[in-house]
Amino acid sequence: MKLLDYLGTALSISAIMAIISYIMSYRNKGNEEKQKNYWRICCLFGGITIVVGIGALAVMLLN
Questions:
Q1: Torsion angle of alpha carbons 60, 3, 39, 25, nearest 10°?
Q2: At what angle do helices 2-27 and 32-62 cross, to 10 degrees?
């Protein structure tokens, strides 16, 4: 069960980071370079969220 707790924590942290970078990219509409950087960060954390979520689902189904 500890692994599932760690996966849940990682999932929520990466989801929060993806949301924060999305909001920051939305706020920097005029500065296209900053907006691209925030979108890259958002996509990175979004991918991490998906991978960790699938891992957590697999751990739950195997237990």
A1: 100
A2: 160
Instruction: Give the DSSP per-residue string, 7-31.
Output: HHHHHHHHHHHHHHHHHHHHHTSS-
pLDDT tens, the chain, 63 aa long: 688 888 888 888 888 888 888 888 878 777 888 888 888 888 888 888 889 888 888 888 887
Task: Give the DSSP H/E element, type plus range, for residue 57.
Answer: helix 32-62
The domains of the chain are located at 18-62
| Model pTM score | 0.75
- Let me know how long the chain is: 63
The CA distance from 8 to 19, in Å, is 17
